[in-house]
Amino acid sequence: MGVWSSGASYDAYVGRWSRLVATGFLRWLDRPPGARWLDVGCGTGALAGAILSTAAPTDVVGVDPSPGFVARAAATVPDPRARFGVGDARALPVGDGWFDVAVSGLMLNVVAERTAVLCEMRRAVGPGGTVAAYVWDYPDGMQLMTAYWDTVLDLGLAEPTMHGAVRFGFCRPQALRAMLAAAGLAGVDTTEIVVPTVYRTFDEFWSGFLGGTGFAPAHLAALPADQQLTLRDAVRERLPVADDGSIALTARAWAVRGTAP
């Protein structure tokens, strides 16, 4: 199974939390109704679904390189205004200037050619269009992932460069603003979006890491069974488990937007 192959596994891991972030992101964008939206790296359809339910669009087109994610999006977002297809964010299969808004949710950190992707999004909206994105705050705001990777490093089960805080250190406001400016966008600004990530039990928390979809779940799946058990128990000890067994954490995303000149 590839790191980003299963839509159902991704939803169990962090997809359900990304739906909460999507709502805050769209509230901040505050685009007028009747717009045509492009969702780049649409994943399992969390952002597209939020656009359809809150932004009154005329069209929403989602593009993702994972056939599994596209199939999941099409199944969970059956709105006739929405279309989903497999495609490369570095060469979007869309015409110049056709969209009013191009957005990306939790995708920029998984592509190396981020400036190329943002330039493609700018091309897709044309002059005056909005380009916007959000990413998890891997360095300092994703408690569920930090608990995993901090424990992994304590146990010597990975190199320090595997930690999200190192791999995705650019997921900060200043770096995000610089990326959009480098892609030729104007009026760039950022905001934070914080959502609760509450689990009823540790088993519910840990089950999200068992599907193999995402960097942490893929790392876990590659470990021998005895190391997986040791890691599970050590992560449990690190988490703030309440008397009723629940675990209350938070997740922060940084959002950035700009206008195509």
How would you characterize this protein structure?
InterPro entries: Methyltransf_11 (IPR013216), SAM-dependent_MTases_sf (IPR029063). It holds the Pfam family Methyltransf_11. Its EC number is 2.1.-.-. The longest helix is centred in the first third of the chain and has 23 residues, at 7-29. The chain is 41% helix and 21% strand. It has a single domain (7-259), classed as Rossmann fold. A seven-stranded mixed beta sheet has the order 3-2-1-4-5-7-6, sandwiched between helices. The model is unreliable at 1-7 (pLDDT under 50). It starts with 6 loop residues before the first helix and ends with a strand. The protein is an alpha/beta fold and 261 residues long. It contains ten helices and seven strands.
Any key phrases for this structure?
261 residues, single chain, Rossmann fold, disordered N terminus, 10 helices, alpha/beta
Helix content: 40-55%
Query: Could you say how many structural domains there are in total?
Result: 1
State the major sheet. 7 strands, mixed
Total strands: 7
* Rounded Rg: 18 Å
Pfam family, one: Methyltransf_11
Protein name: Class I SAM-dependent methyltransferase
Domain Methyltransferase type: 38-132
InterPro entries: Methyltransf_11, SAM-dependent_MTases_sf
Q: Quick recap of the structure?
A:
The protein has 261 residues and is of the alpha/beta class. It has ten helices and seven strands. Strand 4, helix 4 and strand 5 (130-136) form a beta-alpha-beta unit.
Annotate the secondary structure layout.
Elements: H1 7-29, E1 36-40, H2 46-54, E2 59-64, H3 67-76, E3 82-86, E4 101-105, H4 114-125, E5 130-136, H5 143-154, H6 164-167, H7 173-182, E6 186-199, H8 202-207, H9 215-221, H10 225-238, E7 247-259
Parallel strand pairs: 1-2, 1-4, 2-3, 4-5
Antiparallel strand pairs: 5-7, 6-7
